[in-house]
Amino acid sequence: MGRHVATGTFALTSLISANAVERLVPSAGTNFTANNNSGVLGLSEFEMQRIGVAAAVSFLGGIIQVAMFMLQLGSATFLLTEPVISAMTTGAATHVVTSQVKYLLGMKMPYISGPLGFFHIYAYIFENIRSVQLEALLLSLLSIVVLVLVKELNEKFQRNIKIVLPIDLVLIIATSAACYYADMEYIYGLEVVGHIPEGLPPPKLPPMNVLSEVVTEAFGVALVGYVASLALAQGSAKKFKYTVDDNQEFLAHGLSNVIPSFFFCIPSAAAMGRTALLYSTGARTQVACLISSALILVVIYTIGPMLYWLPMCVLASIIIVGLKGMLMQFRDLKKYWNVDKIDWSIWVSTYVFTICFAANVGLLYGVVCTIVTVIFRFSRARTLNLKNMKEVEYKYKTEDNCQSLKQVKIVSVNNPLVFLNARKFHADLTKIIQKDSTSSQACEDVNKCEQNTLLCSFSNGSCHGESLQPSQSERRVLILDCSGLSLFDYTGASMLLQIYMDCKNRHIDVLLAHCKASLIKAMQYGGNLESEYPVFFESVSSAIDAIQIHRNYSKFSEQSEV
Q1: pTM for the whole structure
Q2: Class at the top of the CATH hierarchy for domain 382-392+406-436+475-561
Q3: Which of 47, 200, 241, 517 has its CA 20 to 30 A from that of 120?
Q4: What are the sequence ranges of the domains in the chain?
């Protein structure tokens, strides 16, 4: 796991697991008796069933992450491009802010989820705007202002101060004390956190009977939690100049979800607020997280009950300010617009899908869009480039050599040759030869036919006039420089073989340079490669040398016959 990543409760995964809890054990349900004590930390049977569903989501989500580690799926994270991750996390942060609005306003409202639930929440708020609690709203605004102001000052003067003011902790203590002594819960009707059980429950297997019903949420927790945590880990790794193993992150977060689920913990992931605090305090290793975990145990066993009086509006303010980093990713839109309009459109559409449906749906949409974009761009990218003879590491000295090399055309293969771009490869080669042929229109009629033979072979056309077979010294030669052909499949190898055989029938010699052994084997297996010249060469220069030697020999033979 990243050295500076602190694991804990994460708002995005908590929202996903909350969907499963409300769906299976709704808070408004009457099938459970809230007064029946379960004997675990003084919680009722109803509360334990709700917690059990969240623990089951955590358990199954962790199992999925461990399975992804075993399948080495961390290598597939290249599909999670920066625009997709940025849009998904920004949209998920918007969902979290929306879920906290009712606490900021002090409103009572039913749990709303599902597709387009984001808009239904705000519709409900505007319909019941008169029920806003003024005291909660003022306290929320004051808390947000204090949090933002102090955090900005901490960041601005962090080099000049040795101890960073933990404003979140100070605000929690101050507002809890004020609420207790001013009796705000009863006088002003402020909603407070309420009873917090002391200690940890005895380890117990999460309810297995609900696993089949929380598969969707478990996958959401596994993917969204991993992506957000990986983005945070890679950011810290880039900042402090070390590397992160993408696959190892699956195992780390998987175990962080499986083991705590036996103690009825909700799904966890990288906590942005705690991670930022580690940055500011100069933490360098995971020992800082170990110390933090020990302090949390102290809070659970001793200080937890004292947080009974913490106003929910203050807690919501802390959560929203903690998401400031994610919400500020809206500024990335300008960067994407200036660099790549397609990435900009992927960001916007992924964000829209995320807020309209859910974070996991938005993530899936973004990945699909990325794959479709890559396929579209790859199939349209230029595959070939006509090389100038001066670019080749070959020096010819005599005018005869210069004249004979005019019949040699060198084409460089720039991209992998697979089924996606095989046809584009054929079209690009045709265009290159066509452009080269039109530049030499001042030749004689018979020479025109010979110069256009290669073009005719690809367009299935035929030259007009007398069909003459060129002499060995006048045969055209096409050299394919395959140094840039890093990958090929059966379709690509078949296309190369088809080009070779077609040119051979039209009295055009095709030579291949810088070929990998696998490509040579594939083409030899696919067809007969007999030619006046050897077909495969180590370099373009060696291919040209072979052409010169063969043509000089042919001229000598012709002169001898005369």
Answers
A1: 0.75
A2: alpha beta
A3: 47
A4: 7-27+40-378, 382-392+406-436+475-561
